[in-house]
Amino acid sequence: MITGTFVLIALILGYSVVVGLSMLATFSITKAAPAFVAQEHLLNPGYRILQEFMWLVCSLVGGYVSAWVTGPAVHPLLVGAALAGVLVAVLWSNTWEVAQRGLGHQIVMTIVTIIGVAAGFALRLR
User: Fold this and answer.
1) pLDDT at 102 over 90
2) Is 43 within 8 Å of 6 (Cβ atoms)?
3) How far is residue 17's CA from residue 66's CA, in Å, rounded to a whole number?
4) How far is residue 65 from each of residues 6, 21, 70, 109, 125, measured CA to CA in Å?
């Protein structure tokens, strides 16, 4: 019971950190340089690349936070895979963003999510 609670808290907190940091970075960049982000209602390629790096950092921090919550009590592969799975599922469920970013970018964002979460767990548990 306690282990399940820690897993749930770790997933909720990890997800919240990833999405919160991503939103903060996105809103800050959009406010500072709107022309860099989009032109004629389309995302610029340079911004999409920056977005991939931002997502990598955000997912790394979220993975680290999730690993911090669960600690060695729960197998890290379980929580890490669950967090990455939730993030990827949400990433692909937003059809507007899939259409806006393009298939290639979505695939890269999926890979970046898995790498970031795994790196966050590895940093915390090493």
Assistant:
1) no
2) no
3) 9
4) 12, 12, 9, 20, 11
Asked whether 62 and 91 are in contact (CB, 8 A), the reply is no
Tokens (6 digits) for 86? 């939730």
**Cα–Cα distance measured from residue 66 to residue 83, given in angstroms and rounded to the nearest whole number:** 8
Nearest to 24 by CA among 52, 47, 58: 58
pLDDT, position 62 = 97
Residue 19 pLDDT > 70? yes
Q: What is the DSSP letter of 40?
A: T
Distances (CA, A) of 43 to 53, 62, 74, 106, 118: 15, 25, 40, 13, 28
pLDDT of residue 76: 77
Q: Report the alpha-carbon distance of residue 28 to residue 48 in Å, rounded.
A: 15
